[in-house]
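Section 3.1: Structural characterization of target chains.
Under the original work plan, the team committed to producing a structural model for every single-chain target entering the pipeline before any wet-lab resources were allocated. The record below documents one such target. The sequence was received from the expression subgroup and is listed exactly as submitted; it comprises 329 residues.
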Amino acid sequence: MAYHSIQGLAHGRLDLLNQLRTFLVTTTGWTLHDDQSADPQPYFVFKSHGESGAEDVYLQFRISTTSGRIHVAAFQYWDAATHTGVNEASHTSYTYLRVEDSADFIFWLFADLDHVFVVTKLISTYYGHYSGSLKRFWSGAVALTQAAVTAGSGVVLQVNDATVVTPGQDYVIKDDAGIERVRVSAIDTAVTPNTITVETLVRDYASGAKIGEDPQPVINSYYNAPGTFYAVNKFDGWTSASGQQGRCGAANGGLQGETDPEMRYGTTILFPWLASMSGSAAYQELRGELIEIFAVGGGNVASEDTIQIGTDSYRVFNLTTGGWCAVKE
């Protein structure tokens, strides 16, 4: 697992943007997909295929026109030639890193090839921002189309592996231009390439399109994560940049105060942060959990303390809105 973390001092928001580039590309292994550092609003688009090598994560970090912010957007796909994105997840008022324009401030960066979590400290307040993939609850297995397909009824898709789907079940199909939900009516694993037949296909898809349960669970949080976020898609596709809203909730049942530490062995319990799609009753579901970020009680720690569990170290912050969290270092 290519997991890394650093603590640093930023001399204003442009310096943090450049340090983030170095950390993600040089240290963690992301691709600098689009370098627009000369733009009037400088930005970088980072791309990753995830720890599995099968993900599609596109994240843009841009100097905002609003003071004290680096705007963040996630995309289904980003065209580096035209500098345009497909199916954005963001909101100008909420999805950003809280920063200083030119004054110094402390920051922490935590990332693997699936996600990045940024913590900034402004005076004595800590802000968190999460972007990238979730640790999904649904299967990440996908079948790859071997040829372009045209919209229609009873469409047969040539794929590399049809065993990842089951006839009668619904799945998501996506490429670099579109996404939709389809119902599989039949599969054939005796032919090469395998085939998947879907009842209806609304749009055309290119060769290399992916079909699976949840092929791209990418989110972009508010500036005060863990909390509200926007996703690049939901179970049946994409509506708008803020049309796939979700929220995070700690899996502690409100009992974290009895576990910081618990008295039997003096241990501190780390509770996962769950992520659900919550913006509309039409698409509510439990989607997954945040990667390597946990809720803790604050009774025996202070912000910037570390908790040691075996060989793993976790940095503790009392995040604005998110509360007490422990992040793997």
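The mean pLDDT is 96.
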